[in-house]
Amino acid sequence: MEPGGLGRVLSDLLQPDNALIQQATAQLREAFRHPEVLPQLCQLLAGAPDPQIRQLAAVLLRRRLTKHWRKLNPEEQDRLKSLVLGALQQEAEHQVSVALAQLAALLLRHQGLERWPQLLQLIQQGVRGPDPHHRQISLLVLSSALESDPEAFAPHYSALLRLFHSALGQRGQPGALYYSLRGLAAMAAGLGSDHLNLTRSLVPKIISAVRQLIPVNEVHASEAMEVFDELMESEVSVIVQHLSDVVGFCLEVASNRALGDALRVKALSTLSFLIKLRGKAVLKQRLLPPVLDALFPILSAEPPPGQLDAEDQEGEDEGDEAQTPKHVAAQVIDMLALHLPPEKLFPQLMPHLEPALRSPQPYERKAGLMVVAVLAEGCGDHIRTRHLQALLGVICRSLADESLVVRSAALFALGQFSENLQPDITAYAGEVLPLLLSYLEGVELARGGHLAKAYYALENFVESLGAGIEPFLPVLMEQTLGTLRGPGGPRPKELAISALGAIASAAQRAMGPYLPPVLEQLRRFLPPAAPPEQRPLQCQAVETLGVLVRALGRAALGPLAEESCQLGLGLAEGQDDPDLRRCTYSLFAALSCAMGDELAPHLPRVTTLLLYSLKSTEGLVPPAGDTSSFLLFEDEEEEAEVEGEEDLDGEDDEEEEEELFGLSVESAYVDEKEDACAALGEIAANASVAFLPYLESCVPEVFQLLEFPHPGVRKAAYEALGQFCIALHRICERDPSEPHATALQRLLGLALPAMARAVHRERERLVAMAVLEALGAVLTACRQEALRSPGRLAELCGALRAVLERKTACQDDGLDEEDEEDEEQAEYDSMLLEYAGEGIPALATAAGGDAFAPYFAGFLPLLLNKMKPSCSAAERSFAVGTLAETLGGLGWATAPFVPRLLPPFLAAARDADPEVRSNGVFALGVLAEHGGEALLPHYPKVLALLAGGSAQEPSARVRDNVCGAVARMVLSQPQALPLSQVFPALLRSLPLTEDFEENKTVFRCIGFLYEKAPQQVLQQVGEVVRASSTVLGTDRLPADAQVSLLSLLRHLSAHCPTEFQAALLALPPDAGARISGALGSA
Prior knowledge:
By secondary structure, this protein is mainly α. A two-stranded antiparallel ribbon has the order 1-2. The protein is globular.
């Protein structure tokens, strides 16, 4: 084809005529089969009079050369590089220049700077030269090259920073400023300490440059603000020194209602990200007051007359509204709650919040309720202990507000409280549930968005009620089944089906009587042939079916289990819908809980589906504005390779990987991957040996997702990896063999180092918490098997210690160590420490006392440091609880640590906070149990504290722990105690009323005394029988302890029949009958 002919083809592609485009596409595919197409495209690139043809030629060249660059000989490569440089210097049309710059960036990625120094010369000359147009083109090329391959420029970063200093100082050149900021953002991740001063001094110029862009092009200004996010994430602390200026600028933009929503949203998003990464610095620099001063007017702004805020509008897709400044301002408050200590946030927040909640203006009341709602997650403990009753009262009263927007916000707040303030909020079920049900009855079915918020509040409230839901079950079922049976569109029915799942989750077996009518309704929406408009209903019905399967168990399900499995397989295999597949995966996971290894016949199909979703690249979306994917010509690449142009050096795979960089993934596909991961882990744990043949193919796929860009998928992958380890360990226990043991060590060798690395490197706290939880579960299950590899114990201890020392990536708040004086921290930061703390006892148990003692010595000062009076009650409780639990794993190796542990344990047992006191008393008991003779000299002091405190102790849990501690002292050193006084006092303190786990220790103590000092027990037969009657045949005493207790009672009835019968007669009739019946059947 002649150049003129190719030019006509490209011209036809640009016409608004589908037939012409299809014809031109076929012609272009044919042209690409011939080698002369490249020089023809080059001619068009340099000489076509139509700029659209020049632009399209550059795009097609870039697309072609992505995979075929190395097929050009060196002379052809050099000619092409010269052509591109010449075209860049001559081109006057901006869009063509953009396409040329992207083509130049591709060539540079192939060649490297050392083989194309002319490009760097062009950039340097253009930036320093007098011509503004050449300066803009040079910076465009530089930013494109940096975005394509920033590492290629790493040796030149200092020179580039100086170059950007110069470029950002130019006024009246918005294009040059824009491309400078994009280039700087692209290289931010690679900046190191050598560049710190240069980069810090750039920040004022960056702010000035964005400010200049705003009146010229808000879209460019918004994109340029990405540089703040990139610099905040870089390894060097650049922003903190200019934090006040950056925060002030973001608030200035966000508060300007004359600007477009997109730019204001970007400013607020930058502020939110800054708080997430540098929250402590915001506090330290006293920036919280101006932030709150600016946010509340944004939150309470009224929409234009005759309009509503997006979340208050009614429509089919009420969950899909675009972000607005008001939404993102609420997210900033949420971020403050998640990342600042509540003790610092609330005193600054309440002077804004209280007037808003009392305001005569409905949008100010709405703003107050939105703030209350988003505080619930990050400040849950603080609200539970200090504000729950007052704030819940405000929310409930707001459900009767005259303004619909206020009522809607109150429903959202109630849903957030219900989700995040369990179990405390369930105490208000008697007031809240009737209010919600009455409210639901009055909502018009046509108000889908408002109805969704009402159901959201109802679901979250009932889900954690547990057995407390039973009095409300009839009215709840009448409401939800009535909605399903009655008229109305699909949305109300979808919400009712979802509510059924929440009700079933709480009710568990009590849901049994309602199963037939529920199934009757669900079956209406489950058929595979359901019309597309019923797909959301179908997905929700599958999800609720899974919840029912979990709640009712195998026995209650009968043939429904097999029917549900076939249904799920049919839907997943027959419909190409990520949401539907995701729901079926949850169903398969639920079925594995109910069916166990009975799921085996279906595992080939189930695992095929799950692995498909893990491997799938469906839903990958290129970054906005990327024109590289000329998908029209994708087939041409494949056809060329079929005809013999196969890649000989493996370059294609490398290029494809590089092209994936920067892609985002549509949320439905992310959710599908996350649920597929979760389902695989759960099925592995429940199907046991039946899953073993599939483990080898599943592990690599899950392992690859540990680096997935979305945190939810990473979290699910780590959890699944942990479950794989636990499942394989169980198989080793059930069927010991050398191959199984080898497979377990290989898997642990993969999983545990990955978890240790993630603890150090993971930036998302929720993912880090999931990793720590999975690690603890693996250690608890696998014990010494997890630590067979040399160095593994040190590696895992190092990871946990890093959390306690606040040295992990997700704890980096940008402050120097000397600035970390404040003991208070955000609740989520405390939770992270607690997850790490739970791993320490698991490690001690797995390693054994002698091996773990040196590491315990390293943990000890870190934990004792958190028991200081200046620390919060939560921290003191965490530290003493962690130490106490760890002593169980240390065993007799505890003795050398007694002098360091006893004083803080005694102080904790006297603490003003009941939870700390409870843990302190428990710790003293465990210290007595494992401290041996090292604690003997201190027995009188410990006993006096326990006895004195118990008499006046208001907390039932503390009193229960006193019983447990005394029992442990008896078990350890009975000769050191006045048993004739201690033992009767212990029996009189029974039954335990809150901490039933201590029953096992107490009754083990009674059995122990009967063996070692039987007279002590025989003198107290009546009290022993009375205490036993409160636990025998209940779930308050484990099964093995029940057996031991029955044996003791049998001995007592044989040795002291008269006293024993008298004791039985003194009991309430049902208790006496329970003991007699147990003894008779034993």
